[in-house]
Amino acid sequence: MITNMRCLSFTAIFQALAILLVAVAQVGAGPLSVQRRKALDVFNPVIVEPTASSNWVAGAQELVSWDTSDAPQSISNQGHVVLKTTPADSNEVSQWRHLAGPFDLTIGQINVTVPNDMITGQYKVILFGDSGNESPAFHVDGVNGTDGQQPPSDNDDPFGTDESHTHNFLDIFKGN
């Protein structure tokens, strides 16, 4: 019976030690969690260009720029620039066209080529990375869209990836 008590005591001590080691490991992981959170800080830059008075032309090179003055030291996500229609009718679905990416968000600007087949109308630039920032609506001179045609769209794949229907947006925001 004393042997069983010694075994029980040894087992209890071993379990307590194991719990203690797990607890210490969790406490040790605390700073790592803080570092990971810092890496995932939301960088919400203001889009500087295009402005509401911008007028882009289909086929032309245009500048998209954003303010990086308050950027965190470490941005884990890569940037993407998407051009989005701004339909006049609230029942219409916005169309998306991938213009650039992936790129480092700390660069603050990127030149994009406006697709040749864009229909004349109002558009917004969306800067994706840690967050999705919209520019003000601006005008694009493109092809005549009076015949009811819709602009070509990357709606199923706004980031221009090869895995359009299965790609997880969180993977894009993580930089994968």
Record the SSE blueprint.
Layout: H1 2-39, E1 47-49, E2 55-57, E3 61-66, E4 78-85, E5 96-104, E6 109-113, E7 121-128, E8 133-134, E9 138-141, H2 169-174
Parallel strand pairs: 2-9
Antiparallel strand pairs: 1-3, 3-6, 4-5, 4-7, 7-8, 7-9
Signal peptide: 1-29
Keywords: Signal
Region (Disordered): 137-176
SSE order, as H and E?
HEEEEEEEEEH
* Overall shape: elongated
> Helicity range of the residues?
25-40%
- pLDDT average, as an integer? 74
Contiguous helical run count: 2
Which regions contain 5 or more consecutive residues with pLDDT less than 50?
20-32, 161-176
How far apart the termini lie comes to 60 Å
For the biggest sheet, the summary is: 6 strands, mixed
Strand content: 25-35%
Structural class given helices, strands, pairing? alpha+beta
Keywords: Signal
Signal peptide: 1-29
Region (Disordered): 137-176
Description:
With 176 residues, the chain is an alpha+beta fold. 25% of the residues lie in helices and 27% in strands. It has two helices and nine strands. The strands form two sheets. Strands 2, 4, 5, 7, 8 and 9 form a six-stranded mixed β-sheet that branches. The longest helix has 38 residues, at 2-39. It is elongated, with a radius of gyration of 26 Å. It starts with a helix and ends with a helix. Mean pLDDT is 74; it is low at 20-32 and 161-176. Residues 1-29 form the signal peptide. Residues 137-176 are annotated as: Disordered. Keywords: Signal.
